[in-house]
Amino acid sequence: MSRALAFLTRRKGGDAWDWTDVFTFLWLGSAVFIMFGPALWLVLSSFKSPAQLAEFPPTLLPYEAQTVVVEGFDRPLPLFSVTDEAGTRTLAEVRRVGTVAQMVDPENPGEVQRVNIANRTPVREVGFSWGNYLDPFLRFDFLNYTKNSIFVTGVATLITLLTNSMAAFALSKYEFRGRGFVVVLIIATLMIPLSVILVPLYSIVSGVGLINSLWGVILPTVATPTGVFLLRQYMLTIPDELLEAARMDHASEWQIYWRIVLPLTAPALAVLAIFSVVWRWNDFLWPLIVLSRQEVYTLQVGLNAYAGELNVQWHYLLAMTVITMIPVVLVFIFLQRFITAGIAGTGLK
Amino acid sequence: MGRIQLHDIRKSFGAVDVLKGIDLTINEGELVVFVGPSGCGKSTLLRMIAGLDKPSSGRIEIDGVDVTPRSAADRGLAMVFQSYALYPHMTVRANMAFGLQNTNMPKPEIDARISEAARMLEIEPLLDRRPGQLSGGQRQRVAIGRAIVRRPTAFLLDEPLSNLDAELRVSMRAELSALHDRLGATMIHVTHDQVEAMTMADRIVVLRAGKVEQVDTPLNLFNRPANLFVAGFIGAPGMNLWAGQAKDGAVQLDSGARLPLPSGVTVPEGSVTLGIRPQHLRPMAGGPVRAEVRLIEALGPESVVHGDMGAGGTLLAVLAGQPDLARGTVIELGYDPQMAHVFGADGQRLA
Amino acid sequence: MTGVKGMLGAVVTAPLVALARVLEVPLRLWQRLTGQGGMVAFFLLPNMAIFTLFVLLPLVINIAYSMTTGAALFLPERTYVGAAQYERLLRCTDYTNLMTCQEDQFWIALRNTGTFVVLQVTLLIVAATITALILNRALRALSFWRAVFFFPVLLSPVVVGLIWRWILDRNGVLNAALVGMGMDPVNWLLERNYAFSAAIGVTIWAHLGFFALILLAGLQAIPRDLYEAAEMDGTKPARVFWRITLPLLMPNMLVVIVLALIRAVQVFDEAYVLTGGGPGTATLFLTQYIYEVGFASLLKNPGLAAAASILMGGVLIVLTLLQLALGKRNERKGRLK
After folding, report:
1. Residues of chain C positioned with their CB less than 8 A from the CB of B72
2. pLDDT greater than 50 at residue B251
3. What is d(CA B113, CA B108) in angstroms, rounded to the nearest whole number?
4. Residues C50 and C117 in one domain
5. Looking at the predicted structure, is the pLDDT value of residue A343 above 80?
6. Helix/strand/coil for B41
7. Which range of residues forms the domain containing residue C38?
8. Are C150 and C214 in contact (CB under 8 A)?
9. What mean pLDDT, rounded, does chain A reach?
10. Is the Cβ of A178 closer than 8 Å to some Cβ of chain C?
């Protein structure tokens, strides 16, 4: 606590608060609120029941109305706190007629009291609507969407790592005619965005029969020039003497690739793997175009379709948004230290 | 102008005490060198004088005025950084003018000062170039020029020669000394190189682990080191330091050798360390210092002999010429006892 | 930490290692038969085949595609119409009134995208610069603060869009806050200017951390010595910023600006999920126009979409070349240093 306080009151010069200190304080303070706030609000909201989501103004935490089982009634009755001339007490509602509610004391179920509904408020306590999370998996296709997303992300990342590293190896460690041309070609296409080649790409993917197939989502994304470029830059720093030493030891070129160069490229591969996972998990526009049948939707496309329905069921939508966010948040928590550790751990510059 | 006094300067970073109470007076026009092994706090002390860091406690006075609470800009000092810290996007001229423009000095005055400094440092042809286009030595001059145009009360130089190659370092050393003579300004120079300290300084401040070990002229440091640390740090190759028991005007080493102490000083009986500079040993048949030759570094005019005295004692001797010695032979050396240094069990000088 | 790293590494590499072992013997044979050249071909083949089929080929046939018409998907089956699609996109009877254009949707999308690019990039760069300057103030817990700003960068556009749709909802938390402060609630996503501002704000929220990090790296590369030298020279903070920090940050700044421009021109997914292009056409941007014309609308016109994408590609190529040129210049400068 004292450390936190010392941190909060730390100033630049140490003498007086100048305006930059105040500004820094305000900027960072509001940043925590604006950057984390929305995601936190999403998570809190995702645990609310539909009735609670419809409330305005909303409550911060999710609540559940309390019910009680009273002798002589089949259903559990909702509990209310009643305040009127007779004082404050907790009653269960039997039924409501107009502005008057018929209520009973759970301790004394025989006597029915009539209470004006203006005088009662529901008794609630913090409670989580786990159904928001379970139902979409059990009753809708979200389990399927999740499987599809995991498949696309995993397979695309594996193929990306394999093909990109093989190409990067050839382009960094062998001299051959046309090498310069291929490298220039790859760099030139680094910045070509998907949106520019959307139409012809669709015609090609449909030509090879991959519309509405997860492979149609995977293949166009795996030959990323970015990955080849990143890995090649890294492999260029591996001394050629290592390869020559291996050749003296009768290693085949394939062995040189996977026994020597790949392990030394691990930090760059890890970075590419992380980014590939995030990219493929988050991909939206291309899957949206290729996948038009529900059973092949990825999470992102499924979410969008769900959000586009006329009567949006926010309680399910919010919960599924949280689910979609989780893998990326997990990656994020480890990412920062991971990359620095990866670079520091190699000993190679 | 340019008298700097430090009173009980202390600095801690968290639990680590970097400076443990420094008292020092630097006189007007003096060239003082702070020297010590890395991590001794010499650069921290310089930055404290500059005003870039604030001491945890203590007082800094310039010309009798307490400047401790003042910012770096208000102390009237100029600093030459180890990396030179030239603004890479400005020409040499703009680099030198930048600080003067901050004080709203009229342009003719700025131009006059820059051309004067450029002439003095012979960097006139470089004025319109950028630091990236200059060699290491040229950058060094520009950095000094940037300090000169400010006409500071004192110059602070933080290892300014350490980024130069050996040859350039020797010539810049001489130039800096000449510049000091010409400007007559107070200069504080920080270095870890004791040769640089010996050749440039009016006075040397030897620092170790945040404390001043000794302050004196270079020759006094060499001739009368105040303690074991200074004795070992100043002079190359380093002084022979042999531990033994003092008795009857001589020191008895573990190896059995009896080495005479200087006459005219009283050394109490007990553990002492005897120090003899390698240059003060000379061949003497039947001399008190006996060692088996391990290695000979023949430098031409002189030879450095590494020897083994037995019982863990090692010997370093600088002998004139190219004596005909073979590894494994035993040499016998003697010395003038008046040239020997004696340090007590606490490491302080006895004689 | 090491555990996670090791696990992740093992999961990723295990199938690859198994594959590599299986391939060892056949590939040794292949190498004996074809020599090193054959091996190079083998290493390049998978990536280059996919690259050619799914990146190069579409790039090349896009131009041909834009000169055809009809609903057929395969190029050979399509009717050649020359520049008719471009004419259709660009022709207006009165260029001061977009409603008189033949493809008024395209022009609206163009105007929206132009406005968006100018406003979003300006605000984004200013905010990212301020953030980077603040993070560079030798803060304690820097990695925490970096995380605060970087966190939304990794979120998927759909998630970002939905988070903000929920907050900006008519009965959302933002309106609750407004009502709580005694103001009237606002229909954020159903009023033109508010929806457009929301698209700008949300995309800035999502990308701020990325650009701030690049700028922060640039700031951290400026040696501390220079600031200390300036301090010794008695330089005022504002002058330090304008004369030292900003000029030395300029190379990174230019790269960041071009990158932000390239991204802003392509704006689609966050905005699409947030507003769906509405209300009306208030937030219809170029990429969404291409998507709708090419795929989503009832009257699909892939040729027209291709033509529009080539016009957009032209803008992006100019920006990309600009970035490459800047990169080259920085490299040259770096070598001089």
Report:
1. 228, 231-232, 234
2. yes
3. 9
4. no
5. no
6. coil
7. 2-66
8. no
9. 80
10. no
Reduced to 3 states, what is the DSSP secondary structure of residue A54? coil
CA distance A13 to A247: 60
Residue A13, pLDDT score: 47
Nearest CA to A269 out of A256, A280, A258 is that of A258
Please name every residue paired with B31 in a beta bridge, in sequence order, or none if there are none: B187
**Which domain range does residue A108 map to?**
63-126
Contacts of C54 in chain A (CB under 8 A): 201, 204-205, 219-220, 223
Q: Which residues have CB under 8 Å from B137's CB, separation 6+? A: B164, B168, B172
User: Which amino acid does the sequence have at A44?
Assistant: L
Task: Give rounded-to-5 percent helix, strand, coil for chain C.
Answer: 80, 0, 20
Which of A289, A287, A301 has its CA nearest to residue C302?
A289
pLDDT at A76 over 90: no
Instruction: Assess whether A36 and A139 both reside in one domain.
Output: no
pLDDT tens digits along B52-109: 888 999 999 999 889 988 888 888 899 999 888 899 888 999 999 998 888 888 999 9
Count of all residues that appear for chain C in the document: 337
Which residues of chain C have a pLDDT value below 70? Answer: 1-13, 138, 327, 330-337
pLDDT band at A341 (very low <50, low <70, confident <90, very high): very low
Q: What span, in angstroms and rounded, lies between the C-alpha atoms of A43 and A37?
A: 10
Of A134, A298, A130, A276, the closest CA to residue A214 belongs to A298
Whether B5 contacts B32, CB under 8 Å: no
Q: How far is B72 from chain C (nearest CA, A)?
A: 5
Write phi, then psi, for A162 (nearest 5 degrees).
-70, -55
Residues on chain C touching A182 (C-beta within 8 angstroms): 44, 48
- Residues A97 and A245 both lie in one domain: no
**Residues A305, A306, A310, A315: what is their CA dihedral angle, to the nearest 10 degrees?**
-160
- The sign of the torsion formed by the CA atoms of C319, C320, C324, C330 equals positive
Going along chain A, which residue ranges are E strands? 63-65, 67-68, 77-84, 87-97, 100-105, 108-116, 120-122, 124-126
Residue B287 to residues B261, B281, B307, B320, B330, Cα–Cα distance (Å) = 14, 10, 15, 17, 12
The pLDDT value given to residue A4: 43
**For B207, what's the count of Cα atoms within 13 Å in the CB-facing half-sphere?**
31
Query: Which chain C residue is nearest to residue A313, measuring alpha carbons?
Result: C166
**A7 inside domain:** yes
Prediction ipTM score:
0.83
Which of A120-129, B105-114, B319-328, C276-285 has maximum average pLDDT?
B105-114
What distance in Å separates the CA atoms of residue A32 and residue C141, rounded to the nearest whole number? Answer: 13
DSSP-based three-state secondary structure for A12: coil
The CATH number given to whatever domain includes residue C169 is: 1.10.3720.10
Cα–Cα distance list, B86 to B95, B202, C227, C243 (Å): 7, 28, 10, 13
Tell me: pLDDT of A342 over 50.
no
Pick the residue from chain C with its C-alpha nearest to B74. C234
- Whether the CB of B76 is below 8 Å from some CB of chain C: the reply is no
Per-residue pLDDT tens over the stretch A191-235: 677 888 888 888 889 888 888 999 999 999 887 788 888 888 889
pLDDT digits (tens, 9 = 90+) for A280-327: 998 998 999 899 888 899 999 998 888 887 777 888 888 888 988 888
B87 touches chain C (CB under 8 A): yes
Do A240 and A261 fall within a single domain? yes
- State whether the Cα torsion C21-C26-C31-C34 is positive or negative: negative
Q: What is the pLDDT of residue A6?
A: 46
* Beta strand residue intervals within chain C, DSSP E: 68-69, 79-80
Number of domains in chain A: 3
CA separation for the pair C290, C266 (Å, rounded): 11
pLDDT surpasses 80 at A128: no
